[in-house]
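Weekly puzzle thread! Below is a chain. First person to post its structure in token form gets bragging rights.
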Amino acid sequence: MDTEQLRELLTAVASRGVSVDSALAALERLPFEDLGYARVDHHRALRQGHAEVVFGEGKTPAQIAGITAKLIAAGQGALVTRVDAAKAEAVQRLEPALRYEATARALVAPSPRHVERGLAPVAVVTAGTSDIPVAEEACVTLTHHHYDVDRVYDVGVAGLQRLLAALPRLRSAPALIVIAGMEGALASVVGGLVSAPVVAVPTSVGYGTALGGLTPLFGMLTACSSGLTVVNIDNGFGAALAVTRMLEGRGRSAEASP
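Winning reply:
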């Protein structure tokens, strides 16, 4: 249950459109629902503005289906990250409401509630085609949280003319996620060209001395462009959530201003 759903419920109780007992029944899942193998956090959307997201690695298909069924029943939709194709097929047999996004390795059941953000699309930028799976995890996460996405793929520093051709799109974005492996230079370059927040994601793409993503991670952490936010290696999901917190925090600040 999110803030808007709770406000609607309380308004309905106040207008006597919903009985107190019915309201209590709607709230009985809060703050969490104990399934034995998981405690599903139905209170998270009230605390953080986002419903719980399920990390699929290490969970069985039955566990994923059980958790997502509770999230969907609570009207929150569901997002499961890091799910391979075989596991996704097994989960979908148990919970058909979930759609599989193969490149992102994510299962999604859209929220029944539409939120109009009133923002230009968030730019998701990759240095190379090999970075796209991480980028798609970010895109699926953003769209699940009702943000439009502008995919700007394969514009790495080995051919800067490709990036410069996309510069008007980058400068119109309210925030950018920049994803790169190898030495990770793209994030610093983009950070020097735009004024919006930039979240950098190092990927494990690269030859031996890329060290499984450590080299781009260190490069992004020591970037010349000031103010970059850097998340963990291959963490497209974390980058997307960082952007949503930035943008929604800005929106709440604007609403609070006199």
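Puzzle host: Confirmed. Bonus trivia for everyone else. Residues 24 and 171 are 47 Å apart (CA to CA).
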